[in-house]
Amino acid sequence: MDLTWHGHSTWHVELGTTSLLIDPFFDNPNTETKPTELTPDYVLLTHGHADHIADVGEFRDATVAATPELANFVVDEFDIDEANTVGFNLGGTLELGDAYVTMHRADHTNGLMTEYEFSGGMPAGFVISDTEPAQVSENESKTFYHAGDTALMSEMKDVIGPYLEPDVAALPAGDHFTMGPRQAAIAAGWVDAEYAVPMHYDSFPPIEIDTEEFERHIQAHAPDTESVVLDGDETFEL
User: Fold this and answer.
1) Is the residue at 237 inside a domain?
2) H/E segment holding residue 13
3) Which parts of the sequence belong to the Metallo-beta-lactamase domain (predicted)?
4) Cβ contacts of residue 63 below 8 Å, gap of 6+?
5) What is the mean pLDDT of residues 76-80?
6) What is the sign of the dihedral through the CA atoms of 28, 29, 35 and 40?
7) Which residues constitute the domain of residue 224?
8) What is the CATH number of the domain that holds 48?
């Protein structure tokens, strides 16, 4: 499994012969990649804020997977072909090519449109694995947890860690709109990830952080987890 961070919360996941793009937003300072350079099979959307769905219209040949509310929204607002969408919901697992994608809740808001006129329902995160969740031992699977925009929540300790068993956790760490470095580190310990990667930071002034602070908090709150700070467009191979 190859995990490429394109800044903010935008990730390109390659698993077997399947590629997935999460939260396409390329107008951020940590990427030089253009949307036209990527040809994902699937685009996953965690929620409807503009800094997570801004470039979804660039991927009309991909299948967009999101909550039913958000899938319908991108059909209307981005002229996505309805046949190229699949709506699913919290707790559900889709088999998308070689990947199993499980949707889990995120603690955040989900306003749609730039003035947040409408609610898109519950925001989400995704657990992506090469095996069906909870069917094999942790050592026999490779699993990536994209937490979406979220606060620290007990489901990380009670459900995501023990049952979905992520190897790598991409955690928002920019504070202000999501968790900051300390809570992200606590989350890394709660999900018992082998590796923790910060995301959703440095894109604009309110969420600028010192990533060394993230690394220090990982050492303090999740000593069994290795912090991995990626440069924009850098790939981590699991």
Assistant:
1) no
2) strand 11-15
3) 7-200
4) 41, 42, 43, 84, 85, 86, 96
5) 94
6) negative
7) 2-230
8) 3.60.15.10
pTM of the model: 0.96
40 and 62 in contact (C-beta within 8 Å)? yes
Under the banding of pLDDT at 50, 70 and 90, the label for residue 62 is very high
Q: How far is Cα 219 from Cα 69, in angstroms, rounded to an integer?
A: 39
**Number of folded domains in the chain?**
1
Domain assignment present for residue 189? The answer is yes
Which two structure tokens, joined as six digits, stand for 168?
A: 């790598």
Picking from 174, 88, 158, the residue whose alpha carbon sits closest to that of residue 124 is 88
pLDDT at residue 138 greater than cutoff 70: no
pLDDT digits (tens, 9 = 90+) for 188-220: 999 999 999 999 999 999 999 999 999 999 999
Q: Taking each helix axis from N to C terminus, what angle separates 211-221 and 181-191, rounded to the nearest 10 degrees?
A: 40
